[in-house]
Amino acid sequence: MAEPTGRRPSAGDIAPVTPRGFATRAIRAAHRIPIVDQPPTSVPIYQSVTFTTADAAELGAVTTRQIAGYSYGRLDNPTVAAFAAAVAELEGAEAAFAFATGMGAIHGALGTLLSSGDRIVATQASYGTTRAQLLNVFGRLGVRVDFVDVTDLAAVEAALALAPTRVLYAETISNPTIVVADHAALAGLAHRFGATYVVDNTFASPYLCRPLELGADLVCESATKYLSGHSDVMAGVVVGSASLVGRVRDFEVDTGASLDPHAAFLAMRGLSTLALRMERHSATAATLSAWLEAQPGVTRVWHPALASHPQHATAARQLARGGGMLAFELAGGRAAGEAFIDSLSIPARTASLGSVFTIVTHPPSTTHRQLDDAALTAAGITPGLLRCSVGLEDVDDLIADFARALAAAGSVTTPATSSPALGEPARAEPTPV
Ligand SMILES: Cc1ncc(COP(=O)(O)O)c(C=O)c1O
């Protein structure tokens, strides 16, 4: 164990015991911290739950945040704090706090703001587990939850006018229907009615959109997805003003969804390549969407870069690019969708999104399994909807594979050889959102 340094001499100060027992010496030998006076190029993994202090008074001061420092892993950790600080910088935020998962981050943000008797107005187009958390956790604890179509600003205004509202909640690009929320308009409405505007920015990442700059008060993100980017780590983060994030931190200390330092290290490594990945995801998704839209067996495609996207104008204003997420509907409905997924050979047959590899899922049976038919319809999720998280593979390979799968699913396709070059859409010129 490293000897505390700078310890104040006290009246009872006596020479320390020289350990002789094997167990004591082994513990001390295995805990000698190397002194490194050269800065490493990567943030070290501080795989330690506990941090020593000079004396009992300093430990108390650190633990109660009277002075900066570390005491216990649930409260803070240098690697985790470095990850949070990096995300805060990229989101243009004063502060950030990291969580073990994206759901932990959403729970941290909403749990900080909502009390029994409060009301939240939330987007009806959201990740299924978010909806489940709102109803099953906050609803059970006495929070009134109302859902609204956030693309209908008159409906949002009417919902906010109906009763006092603590939180207005939306996703920048919704899971799975790719609805784009107009943050400037929604933040303006929320503030006019005294509500806090909270945004899930997972599908966009700060490379495509920084909701705080558009008026949002708190932003939650599943760092499991694009921020980390490789489907090998779970993490979440909440960013916002120092005062709000300080309250989120206090809530997390009491509820305990702390991020592990090794996970923080992996997530931070992902941040370094976020720009490159988002550019490539966006270009490939725009090309694939435009190609899909031209296929006779495909009834509908949603991607923010498509001129046909209902919120294309908002996306063009608000997003740097269209992002890597798209949704589409096959003429043959659910059966055709399942046959399509089963016939693909390049995408992984798995859940999640925002990874190096392409993932095609059927939301009604996976990410939104908690929703009954009425809730699925209200959320715009039709039985045959497919969601695609476009990876970093070569676009021509993906188009060839999708063409094969469309044929197998019984849909008529145009030849895969007509695939455009990367970033050059086949049809309906996508603007660079
Ligand atoms: C939009 C969105 N928000 C939050 C989450 C939850 O993230 P996590 O799985 O890291 O808890 C997900 C997960 O898919 C998501 O899609």
Describe the structure.
The protein is built from 15 helices and 11 strands. 49% of the residues are buried. It has helices spanning 22-29, 56-63, 78-91, 102-113, 128-139, 153-162, 183-192, 205-208, 242-255, 261-272, 274-293, 312-318, 333-343, 373-378, 395-408, and strands spanning 95-99, 119-123, 144-148, 167-171, 196-200, 218-222, 236-240, 298-302, 325-330, 359-361, 385-389. The protein folds into 2 domains: 78-272, 3-Layer(aba) Sandwich (Aspartate Aminotransferase, domain 2), CATH 3.40.640.10; 275-418, Aspartate Aminotransferase, domain 1. Bound molecules: pyridoxal-5'-phosphate.
Bound compounds = pyridoxal-5'-phosphate
Q: From the helix content, strand content and strand pairing, which structural class follows?
A: alpha/beta
Give the helix tally: 15
> Sheet with the most strands?
7 strands, mixed
**Name of the CATH architecture of the largest domain:** 3-Layer(aba) Sandwich
Helix and strand run: HHHEHEHEHEHEHEEHHHEHEHEHEH
List keywords for this structure.
alpha/beta; Aspartate Aminotransferase, domain 1; four-stranded antiparallel β-sheet; binds pyridoxal-5'-phosphate; 2 domains; 11 strands; seven-stranded mixed β-sheet; 37% helix; disordered C terminus
